[in-house]
Design brief:
five-stranded antiparallel β-sheet, 16% helix, 213 residues, alpha+beta
Length: 213
């Protein structure tokens, strides 16, 4: 019985590896551009153009179904109140939707000073399912009205970034749409066939033990 449970645990570990990278545009060792990035700011920060909220959204689409484990994001504070709000949302018409799957309020960030810094890791709070073929967005917004954060660009040529100047009411492609650097990690969800093949031997063993009793 104990041997069977051990085999089951080992099997689950093989088909559901923890920390699988679902999407990532970092270079080796989480490298990214620490000199260029998109502004994430509140309405009283003039350094990035019009006095308005500046939100940046980055899309990704899983190739299989996963349970979210963490997000790594190359976000740092340039001036003003340090911190940001990062959200994981659904997609509606190729833009961030109103369904917030997970949200993180960051009260401190690395300092943006044109030199490399460690990306911020956001651990999953709940059990968020990311379904194969569905598009999702990671959205970053300033923590306070005077916050000016920078989300560093990727160096792998990935594009698809979106910018909102009206708190998510509408979205545009900023410049060339270079994606900010981030990755999504999760635990793979076994296919139904694999799950059945796993459960049947265990059920047979349990029935055999019950008959012995």
């Amino acid at each position: 019985m104990r041997f069977s449970l051990l085999v089951t645990a080992l099997y689950l570990g093989s088909v559901c590896p923890a920390g699988t990278i679902i999407y990532g545009d970092f270079g080796p060792s989480q490298a990214f551009d620490a000199t260029l990035g998109w502004c994430v700011s509140g309405p009283t920060t003039a350094n990035c153009g019009p006095l308005t909220y500046r939100w940046i959204a980055a899309p990704f689409t899983p190739g299989a179904s996963y349970t979210l484990s963490q997000i790594d994001i190359a976000l740092a504070n340039f001036t003003g109140t340090t911190g940001a709000v990062v959200k994981l949302t659904n997609s509606v018409g190729g833009h961030p939707g109103s369904t917030i799957l997970e949200s993180w309020t960051l009260n401190s960030l690395p300092v943006w000073n044109l030199s490399p810094f460690a990306p911020v890791t956001l651990g999953a709070v709940g059990s968020v399912s990311l379904l194969s073929g569905n598009q999702y967005f990671v959205v970053a917004q300033g923590l306070a009205a005077d916050s000016l954060d920078i989300w560093g660009n990727n160096t792998q040529g990935a594009t698809g970034a979106l910018l909102s100047l009206d708190q998510g009411a509408s979205w545009i492609v900023p410049g060339a749409g270079t994606l900010s650097a981030f990755d999504i990690q999760g635990t793979a969800v076994p296919e139904p066939t694999s799950a059945i093949l796993l459960v049947l031997p265990l059920m047979a063993l349990l029935l055999r033990n019950k008959r012995r009793d």
